[in-house]
Input
Amino acid sequence: MVIWIKTEKGDTIRLLDRWQYSIYVSGNHSDLIDLAKQIATDGVTLEEKYARPEDPEKSTVLRIRVSNSREAEEFAEKILVYGGYKRFRLYNVDVKSSQMYLYEKDIFPFAFAHATQRSDGLEWCLLDSQEEVEYKIPPLKELTLEVKAASERITKFTDEIREIIISLGSESIRIDSGDELDKLMTLVELIQQLDPDIIYTLDGDEFLFPYLARRAVQNEFSERLVIGRERSPLRVSNEKGTSYVSYGMVHYRPLPTRLLGRIHIDMENSLLYCDCGLQGLIEVARICRIPVQRVSNTTIGTSMTSTQLYHAVRNDILIPWVKADPEDLKTARELLIADRGGFYHEPKVGIHDRVGELDFTSLYPMLMLKKNLSAETVRCKCCPGSAERVPELGYNICEKRKGIVPKSIELLLRKRTKYKELEGRASDPSLRSVYEKRRAALKWILVCAFGYLGFKNARFGKIDAHIATCAFARQTLLKATRLAEERGFELVHGIVDSLWLKKKGATENDFIELRDEIYRETELPISFEGVYRWIVFLPSETRRNLPVLTRYYGMFMDGRIKARGIATRRHDTPEVVRKCIEEMLKVLAKGEDSSDFYNRVPESIDILKKYVQALKSRRIELDDLFIERRLSREIYEYRHEVLHAIAAKRLVKEKVEVRAGQSISFIIINSENRFSKNRVLAAELVDERTPYDVDKYLELLFSSAATILAPFGYTVSDLKRATNLL
Amino acid sequence: MQTSLLPLNYSRADLLNRLEGVSFRDEVFNSLFGKLNLGHLVFLHGTQRCLALSELLCVRVQLALTEGGLESKALFIDGGNTFDPCLIAEYAEQLSLDSDKVLESILVSRAFTYHQLTSLIANNLKPWIDRLNIKLAVISNILEPYSDPDAAGKQSSIFFKVALNSLVNAIKEKKIVAIVTSLHDRYLHKNSFFKQIAYHSSIIAKLEDYGDSTTVILEKHPAGALTTLVSPLGL
Output
């Protein structure tokens, strides 16, 4: 195992540890002995481990040492075949070596530690703690790499490099002289000379590094294109990225480029970096015990899982290679009661005055922690008579031990609370931003923790634990609602972990007192978000009498506007529509209460008129017209001519590789054209001469405006009339 | 191949009003399937209605023998997370049965990975049949977990064989009716999993929707009197 260290002085040191990866096999004792004889190497031992997290005691398993995680999978496959896919179960097979090393050595990335080289490997002395919130990050040398190709529009791997730009802080180095080989040589020299710890790119995984690797091949330089600290050149890979589904949406992840000894952050493809910056990445790396490089280019679920794997390893619980234990048998009646998701109370469509909002903080993770909800604790075999029961279902919960899931989120919850406190106290804006980013990163991990309980591939997830968490959450919201009603409040709207309440003449203090009582009774943290001067709950676009639970906008007493589910929040809204709706909301926000709000509606329609005129007279910048949509399937799988698929097909014709899960940005040029290829144009092909479809953009504008004014009787036709378009 | 246009509507609304008496002894059904004998593996594929039909049979199997049932509980192994207890309750009410009792008599387990589904079929099916005295087992959406893009191709094929062999073995040994369903897929007939199930099935029916009615295409049946058995699968 290679470990890169930054010393206190800022030097970089490479350490090598003679550590070996191990896989484990369980099965009948005689089968294990037979297998050990078959393998017949020194690296095989019998050990005592928990084969399943719910096992009451350890069992004898076979430990087989292999050189790395890649070899582990090949070896495991052979064992399965040898056992006829029935005799053996395999464990710890597909955990990344780097993570397993961290778990076994009980260290974490960016920890302050002391390493001693011994004859049998490295000895670590940790001088840091994951609990620490004021930890120091060593001085890191960061640079941004940009490569420009000779072609102006769509860049292809066959295009020559025009220019390479290396940016260090405010300074930039341009490599634009000599031929292409000279540029590549200069790049390698500069990287070695500058010796950065972190290299940032835009689309480095999908384009920049694969492009450099191909250009190096073209110039017979591929053996010398070394960007990392190891003498390992960048290679052309024929592997593709992956499309995957998360929460019903298809995403695309390009194949990550690793620069051994340095961290590569692809700013375009790292969700966590985009949201939480380097501070967030390092916080997650520390707390989840996963290298920063992996945090930046993998899913949040992978980082969250890493904390669970750590706790499993430290508690001698083996990590199953595959999840084979199915859901416990239930009657259909039980399923009807059990599988109901979260609490919701439909709002009444329209405007409401002086509504207060109370939100439980990290409700689901808090319940998982406090109620000990984990795959092995819900309906455990060891405590059938447990006093701890899941509401409505009566499932027993283990009283004898704490589950892996609660163990893994405990520190996350504690640190998130600490960062929130520090953020509130910090007077230095840069320090406040650090805490805010770390807290936001932890929030992402916590959000994911609940979803993973029911995720099919989660190692320590189980649908019964997921169901139990939902049942406790519903019980909590019902209890909070009852407490509110006892104090004379009316529940206006409720969903999952939030309540919107009103009471005639209620002051902010009344809401705060209610919040405190709910906290006392439920022992779950709950925050008071504020009182809305007015809040508008919106109806379904197709069925105007039905409310949509997550579609509303309102203004707090302090002037903050909160909106959900409307055009300003949607990712595929063109800027022209977003700007118009935001301006309309600002006008409406001047309303002190519902009657004042009504008076402002005509003024908001004037804003709409302004945008309609601008669109009609083609005064809108092209940049404000782009629509971005994600491909939910591969291009050839589209049966209908939807606009983003048409744009993507055009890109494919231009030899651009397009995959399911990628976002396509386009302009509508003529939505009614009989030839679908002429209806839209992908952003990459747009220039200043590109026309746009005024009618279609007007349609989008009217539709979004009608959504926010729907409760007041406005339809698209009404708005067209009001803006003199009909 | 025998094709029959049936006035089926397995949508949640008034299904049984439109399809009166669909049961093991139903006249329309008899004309196509005959009696679903114990020991039969019935493979329904096509639209969502094959899932609805399998759920309806979970209700009807609970009826008395004289009413076309088997006086048995039903086991529903769900490979696609599509089991709908509300639909079951509706069917029960339309048959004037106590919906709570009907729901209590259907045992469900959901599998989210092919390893789980294999484990359910290979390890749990027989013990559950014995313990609960089951006469009807439904394996719903059987192909989905094995065809999951996350599933490793070679391994999922091996596990599918293990599951299918266990299922066939359980049907014969325990003398139950097993309904296996799979949702429509353009390439289904080319799918090797499909071919393997088809090989072991006594009855194969494809359900297609045409507006409010459903076409049932009988692709395979053991009784020559019922069908010409010109199988499009070449079986």
The radius of gyration of chain A is 29 Å. Chain A has 19 helices and 26 strands.
